[in-house]
Amino acid sequence: MKGLDRLKIGEEAVVISTSDNRRLADLGLVEGTRIKCVLRSPLGDPAAYNIRGAVVAIRNEDASIIGVETDMS
Predict the structure, then answer these.
(1) d(Cα 50, Cα 39) in Å, to the nearest integer?
(2) Inter-residue contact 68 to 50 (CB < 8 Å)
(3) For FRET with 66, which of 25, 30, 37, 42 sits at 20 to 30 Å CA-CA?
(4) pTM of the prediction?
(5) What is the pLDDT of residues 28-71, one digit of tens each?
(6) In sequence order, which residues have a C-beta less than 8 Å from that of residue 48 and are 6 or more positions away?
(7) Beta bridge partners of 40
């Protein structure tokens, strides 16, 4: 398991643990959700993720509390 903030551009993962952050849950970041890192800002923060068909920018501070698994076999 690693934090969402560790995904590289183009890398896909599945959310396996979340925080109690209601705002992130409202964006669709709940256990079992597939997510893909699609872009990082020039300074690396924030990053843009494809979540359920929508591209959403999330700060590294918030992304670090979302646990993901990249091995989806």
Answers:
(1) 9
(2) no
(3) 42
(4) 0.87
(5) 889 999 999 999 999 989 999 999 999 999 999 999 999 999 97
(6) 37, 38, 39, 40, 55, 56, 57, 58
(7) 47
Rounded-to-integer distance, Cα 71 and Cα 43, Å: 27
Q: Is the peptide bond before 42 cis (omega within 30 degrees of 0)?
A: no
**Token code pair at residue 12:** 């896909």
Q: Compute the average pLDDT of residues 5-20.
A: 92
- Residue length, the chain? 73
- CA 49, CA 69: separation in Å to the nearest integer? 15
pLDDT at 19 (0 to 100): 77
pLDDT value for 72: 62
